């Protein structure tokens, strides 16, 4: 991982202040599980900066994938081959591109939801139980909305 330049670090801090003006005050409201150290401002800033960067990257990727899919759909009737293999190959390519776009959109929605939760002061709280999600889980997967226990219960259904 490369270290950010001072200018880049300042830009990130400015973006964080703009996006999350009360983050320094709200950091105390982020819950932790028993035995965990309280969240520090630096930890929350790191997660928030990562989410903001992911949001920007995903928005660009979704736009590019949408363009690719539009081109693919627009040009799907073009070409010299009219046999079943050509149609099947084109259909498979369209299906794969559509799946990619949908996966990117889902990840972007999760990222935006996590950012909204930070803004609202509900980040780190399980949406199912209202209990803390856990720092380690959020540091590994910042988009998590459920604690490990709640996620396990959800997956059993």
Structure commentary:
The model has no long low-confidence stretch (mean pLDDT 81). Helix 1 crosses helix 3. The chain has helices spanning 6-19, 23-26, 41-74, 84-120, 135-140, 148-156. The protein contains six helices and no strands. With 157 residues, it is an all-alpha fold.
Outline:
By secondary structure, this protein is mainly alpha-helical. Helices cover 66% and strands 0% of the residues.
Helix and strand composition category: mainly alpha
Count of the domains: 1
Portion of residues within helices: 55-70%
Question: Which fold name corresponds to the CATH topology?
Answer: Four Helix Bundle (Hemerythrin (Met), subunit A)
Q: Proportion of β residues? A: under 5%
Q: Compute the average pLDDT.
A: 81
The major pleated sheet works out as: none
Which word captures the global form?
elongated
Radius of gyration: 21 Å
- The residue ranges in which pLDDT falls below 50 over 5 or more consecutive positions are none
**Secondary-structure element order, N to C:** HHHHHH
Tell me the distance between the termini.
Answer: 39 Å
Total DSSP helices: 6
What's the name of the CATH homologous superfamily?
DksA, coiled-coil domain
CATH architecture: Up-down Bundle
Number of strands: 0
Oligomer: single chain
Class, according to the CATH hierarchy?
Mainly Alpha
